[in-house]
Amino acid sequence: MQAEGSVWVPERGTAQAVALEVLRHGPLARSDIARRLGLSPGSLTRLAAPLIESGLLVEVGERAQPGAGRPSRLLDVRADSRHFIGMKLTATGVAGVVTDLRASVVAEAGIALDSARPDRVVDRIGELVRSFVDLGYEPTMLGIGVGGLVGSGGVVLSAPFLGWEQVPLGPLVQQATGVRTIVDNDLVAVTECENWFGTASGVDRFAVVTLGAGVGYGLVVHGRTVVNEDSGIGLVGHWPLDPLGPLCPAGHRGCAHALLTDTGIAGEVSSALGRTVTFDEALDAAQADDPAARRVVTDAGRGLGRLLAAVANLTVPQLIVIGGEGSRLAVVAEAAVQEGFHADRDPRAHDVPLTMMSGGGLDWCRGAAVLAIQEFAQGA
Ligand SMILES: [Zn+2]
């Protein structure tokens, strides 16, 4: 039986690398695992045996080998053997999901915040955890994504949208819920989710651009998310895109925030139409060919294309993934996005595929769950 502790693989090293490879990319043929990790078939057999015996890996059939070789047996993890909770904190509520070991969502729920006071927020998080436990899920770990600067030990150093500074959110939640908790920046979380389980999984260099209340940018190089102590400030959020564009609250003309955020687009379309509309209503009006809404959304799409071109030119990704609750902009304004993108790319440059995150609106919560999954699977 699998040990019921807080550690997945009891020791670091090559056995853990085998388990992680199968977790991220399985089911995998034994021959593929050996090749990916540069192991001899004998070494793999020796390393895999205790992992299979403990129930951590399972054999799930065979795959025919090219040529006349014996079929190679497939190894996989039992994805439903563990459950994780991922939560996203916003100014107005907490959204949460329960996922399996591969970040597939099996339950979701949300709870409103009546106050941003840390103790009240921790109470709401505790209620959400209990609601999942009442459904029968036993969380191995809890991950929380916050739009702000997060230091070591789960301390939120600054989260302007909540008015927080130096809030030890991780320890407070862990104490209140009894569930091991990890807290990190939300953009880092969605980037890690793409890296481990998304469409970009296995791609050497890729970028993530998120749209919504803000504009986020994440980068993975050689399989690792590029982070430093400033990750969480949102340094690309005010990237200049349109010298004639609208003003952002910080006073920049035509920056990414002014042009691409939910509130920016809703505000521009509202003033053009002379009535208040939401972000989705603004996009609906553009899709219905309302000329004023169409102009705002086309300008935003072109601006998004220019931002993606800057990302492609400066950080040479093989793929750019677009996500976040405002990513519908990239779909509605697709032609303008392509126009803006190609206007700022050299015609000789290779095309960089643009893809959409697959989270179905749950990108942020899945990302937070992946923080927990990574901590669990890589810890020892
Ligand atoms: Zn700005």
General description of the model:
- The protein has 380 residues and is of the alpha/beta class.
- The protein contains 13 helices and 16 strands.
- It has helices spanning 14-25, 30-37, 41-53, 118-134, 169-177, 186-197, 256-260, 262-273, 279-287, 291-315, 328-332, 334-343, 363-378; strands at 28-29, 57-63, 72-77, 83-89, 93-99, 105-112, 139-146, 149-150, 156-159, 164-167, 181-185, 205-211, 215-221, 224-225, 319-323, 354-356.
- The strands form 4 sheets. It has a 5-stranded mixed beta sheet, sandwiched between helices.
- The structure holds zinc ion.
- Zinc ion is lined by residues 238, 248, 250, 252, 255, 257-258.
Q: What's the gyration radius in Å? A: 22 Å
CATH topology of the largest domain: Nucleotidyltransferase, domain 5
Architecture of the largest domain, according to CATH? 2-Layer Sandwich
- Give the total of beta strands: 16
Could you name the CATH class of the largest domain?
Alpha Beta
Helix and strand succession? HEHHEEEEEHEEEEHEHEEEHHHHEHHEH
Strand line-up of the largest beta sheet: 6-5-4-7-11
Described by strand count, sense and barrel closure, the largest sheet is: 5 strands, mixed
Q: Structural class of the helices, strands and pairings?
A: alpha/beta
**CATH-wise, what's the superfamily of the largest domain?**
ATPase, nucleotide binding domain
**Mean pLDDT over the full residue set:** 93
Q: List low-pLDDT spans.
A: none
State the share of residues found in helices, binned by percent.
40-55%
Hetero ligands: zinc ion
Question: What would you call the quaternary organization?
Answer: single chain
